[in-house]
Design a protein that fits this description.
The complex is a heterodimer of chains A (345) and B (275). Chain A is of the alpha/beta class. Helices cover 34% and strands 20% of the residues of chain A. Chain A has 12 helices and 13 strands. A 7-stranded mixed beta sheet of chain A has the order 3-4-5-6-9-10-13, sandwiched between helices. In chain A, strands 1, 2, 7, 8, 11 and 12 form a 6-stranded antiparallel beta sheet that branches. The chains are: A alpha/beta (345), B mainly beta (275).
């Protein structure tokens, strides 16, 4: 029995020895520890440092130096949260958030600093009460035989079947308006599903690159992203106008990016809000959640769309129209489609 | 170091050649009827999971494990090779250290091994060692919305495994104490790249070093068990209890992962005889 134990005990010791092999640097759950952990998470995972440095002059090392001075152990949770949010706001990225039980830290300057160019009450008047809803897509035919689709989010499960049924109902229309204003995004796949019904051929819509290591310039070779035409169901062949504003963000920004490559499609309205980084989540030692952009989506010219996509036709809501419960963007789109001023490719 | 110690076990086993019993079986293993032992164990214990693709901190909690094992002697090498299959299912309920976020982890591993036992039947000691192969499919899920809520785990490995068994009698009952350790030596494993999204992999079909060669340098893993069987009745049945520990670790594409479990197991074994 002694011999057995003399043989077995080393293996137990070995198991505990190897148990300490693969581990991660552990920060203390202190004010300083949480600050350092957040800075480190962003430093090792955030994907836009180079771009934000070029566009905004953000130097992440300098940010550390500046905000580190504001950290002390006597801070309250709210004060720590405020300092950490201020630090993250340097990046001006709507996908960068800090979430605690009492607040959600964000920088929504991508749309809060601009005219909204969208009035929900007025759009409701356009839709009336007799519109249809296909998996979140509200649609109807206006009196001038222009089809109107209101897409508020890509979080709904939009499928090819839904889009096909909708397009079948709108098939007699002379043109189509897809209103994605203030669509904050959702599922990228849903956005591509909708866009796939507006092309007859496979189209290069952009490139994707992800981080391959902790260094700020560790990125994979950009891989081409293609929009495949919908293989099942109807594909729209007539003119389309996409209505945009600064509230078009994330997956919606990607939808506009895809649609911009499609034939017969015109982007009308304001610049989109951007948000071209696919967000990942992490957390701090105190349990606060962190969200950050992790994967870069470029457009088909390998340009960033993080700060938005410019429309083909810039149109803003006029105060006079708003006073008369008219939506300037919808009316402009109807006018263009009715006059067939949108060229067919 | 693990390999060194495993080698020492094998050398020790060879030194014991000629004095041990057929590993894992009673001394009647050399009869015309070969024993086939089935065992089923269930247990629970502690789990500690780190997966830096999801979060940079350990999640800890309770682990549940079920194991189904079959051992049978083969005709290879003059009947000295034992075939062992093990189906190992576990699931963990985990929590971060702040106690405000949950995670779930678990997986299924199938292993098959061939253990050479040079021992004889006239000793309380027996040893065996040999190769095994295993396949694992599992996942870690952190209860937080986002594009990276889960991490898939999969690997196929060739392993070295060694076993020592000690037979004794306590109050007229046969006791069998068995220790087994398995160390993966070479294999392949799935891993996303450092910041690669599953959307890229599975929606766009963009692969980027997602199949990694695994070896002790990047997957220093050890699985071991200390089991005690106490015979019950006269029909080859035993009550079994013991400890199952697993130290699963990897570093692929700069992503660190560990999944430590320590479980107390309880169950039964039944030995059948076949010609």
């Amino acid at each position: 029995m002694k011999r057995f134990l003399s043989l077995i005990i080393p293996f137990f010791i070995l198991s505990f020895f190897t148990a300490s092999c693969v581990s991660e640097e552990d920060y203390d759950n202190t004010r300083r520890g949480n600050f350092e952990a957040l800075w480190r998470i962003m430093d090792e995972h955030y994907c836009f440092f180079e771009y934000k440095n070029a566009e905004l002059g953000v130097n992440w090392d300098e940010v550390h130096t500046r905000y580190s001075k504001q950290i002390n152990e006597k801070m309250t949770n709210e004060q720590l949260f405020e300092v950490l949010c201020n630090m993250l706001s340097e990046l001006k990225d709507g996908h960068v958030n800090l979430s605690a039980a009492f607040d959600y830290g964000r920088n929504w300057s991508f749309h809060e600093d601009y005219p909204e160019n969208y009035n929900d009450s007025i759009v409701s008047l356009y839709l009336g009460h007799d519109y249809r809803i296909a998996s979140g897509l509200k649609y109807k035919i206006f009196d001038d035989n222009i089809g109107y689709v209101r897409c508020e989010t890509f979080a709904d499960g939009i499928g090819s079947g839904n889009v096909t049924m909708m397009l079948d109902n709108l098939a007699t229309c002379t043109g189509l308006i897809i209103d994605v204003r203030s669509n904050g995004g959702g599922d990228l796949t849903r956005a591509h599903t909708l866009a796939s019904h507006f092309t007859n051929e496979k189209r290069l819509v952009g490139y994707t690159s992800h981080k391959t290591g902790k260094q700020r310039n560790d990125f994979s070779e950009p891989k081409a992203d293609y929009l495949e035409p919908a293989s099942n169901g109807l594909r729209w062949q007539k003119p389309v106008i996409i209505l945009t504003n600064r509230g078009c963000y994330s997956a919606c920004n990607d939808f506009v990016k895809c649609m911009k490559t499609c034939p017969n499609v015109t982007i009308l309205g304001d610049c989109t809000g951007g948000g071209s980084g696919m967000p990942f989540n992490s957390e701090l030692p105190n349990g606060w959640g962190v969200r950050y952009s992790a994967v870069v989506h470029f457009d088909s010219d390998m340009q960033h769309t993080e700060f938005g996509i410019e429309p083909d036709i810039k149109v803003e809501m006029s105060g006079a129209d708003t006073d008369r419960n008219r939506d300037t963007l919808i009316e402009t789109a109807r006018l263009l489609l009715g006059q067939k001023k949108i060229p067919l490719d | 170091m693990a390999i060194t110690l495993l080698s020492s076990l094998c050398v020790f086993a060879q030194q014991e050649d000629g004095r041990g019993a057929t590993v894992g079986f009673p001394s009647d293993a050399k009869l015309a009827y070969q024993p086939v032992e089935h065992s089923t164990l269930a247990g629970s214990g502690f789990a500690n999971v780190l997966d830096t693709y999801l979060a940079p901190y350990n999640y800890t909690g309770i682990n549940f494990r079920v194991q189904r094992e079959t051992q049978r002697m083969t005709h290879l090498l003059d009947g000295k090779v034992m075939n062992q299959t093990l189906i190992d299912l576990n699931a963990s309920l985990l929590e971060n250290r702040a106690g405000n976020n949950d995670a779930f982890a678990g997986g299924l591993r199938y292993s098959i091994g061939w253990l050479y036992s040079p021992s004889q039947s006239d000793s309380r000691w027996s040893f065996a060692y040999g190769p095994s192969a295993s396949a694992y499919l599992g996942a870690v899920y952190i209860d937080r919305s986002g594009n990276n809520p889960a991490q898939a785990k999969a690997d196929v490995t060739l392993n070295a495994t060694g076993m020592a068994t000690y037979l004794l009698k306590v109050r007229n009952r046969d006791w069998r104490i068995r220790y087994q350790m398995t160390v993966p030596l070479i294999g392949v494993a799935f891993s996303p790249n450092y910041g690669q999204s599953y959307y890229e992999t599975f929606e766009l079909g963009d692969y980027d070093h997602n199949v990694c060669v695994a070896y002790p340098g990047n997957m220093p893993t050890l699985r071991h068990r200390l089991l005690i069987d106490i015979s019950v009745g006269q029909h080859g049945s035993s009550f079994r209890f013991g400890y199952v520990g697993q130290v699963n670790q990897s570093t692929f594409n700069s992503l660190k992962h560990h999944y430590y479990t320590h479980d107390f197991m309880i169950g039964f074994t039944k030995t059948f005889y076949r010609r």
